[in-house]
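Deadline looming. Please check this record:
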Amino acid sequence: MELNFTGKKVLVTGAGKGIGRALSTALWKGKAEVYALSRTQADLDSLLLECPGIHCICVDLLDLSSVAKLEELPNDVTLLANNAGYAKLESFLEVTEESYDKVMDINVKSMLFVSQIIAKKMISNKTGGSIVNVSSQASMTALPLHTSYCTSKGAVDQLTRMMALELGPYQIRTNAVNPTVVLTDMGKIAWSDPKTGDPMKNRIPQGKFAEVEDVVHAIMYLLSNKSDMINGVTLPIDGGFLATSTMK
């Protein structure tokens, strides 16, 4: 199945590293006009070298006044991938207000307000569109040391449903992808140690973690017009992890 993004304008958040960078590159190769957002200018500079012509936007999603500069994007942006995310490893009894606020502000609050800006453009342009929120299997199961992260991703799933409900009449679809562990830089912090990684891997029927490309391919499908009647879903990309709740 060929996915055609020629002439499509798409915003990708968290585009400097990991899934967001790979997604931006894949969309660029697919002839989309890509607006890549990251808080790290050096990451954007190197991305631009790899993908000449890509539009780089340096924004710290913790600063909503900075997020407001997205108002300057063209009105005919019809695709949005909310990929930016943050995790802080803490047990429930050790969660601090500062760390909780940072996780929620990046993973949920910024997603809401970025989506609001882009959805208003889609509505005013009367073109419809597609939004994909990057959630996690952590939205559907409890994981040790992930209290704030699991909570934030549960909120992402519900935000996705609300967006699907309220934006659907404008022909704007909103879906989420819910990957298992992906060994990006952020994923390695929690799962690269065999003491933590191996028990998690043993709970996945396919016996392996997801590759970045597994997530990218799913996002691209949901962004494309091939998924025209898919709206409000939370799609596990987990090798069957959520099919079983028992420890192997």
In short: The longest helix spans residues 97-125. The CA atoms of residues 62 and 215 lie 25 Å apart. The two ends are 36 Å apart (CA to CA). Residues 9-182+212-236 form a domain with the Rossmann fold fold (CATH 3.40.50.720).
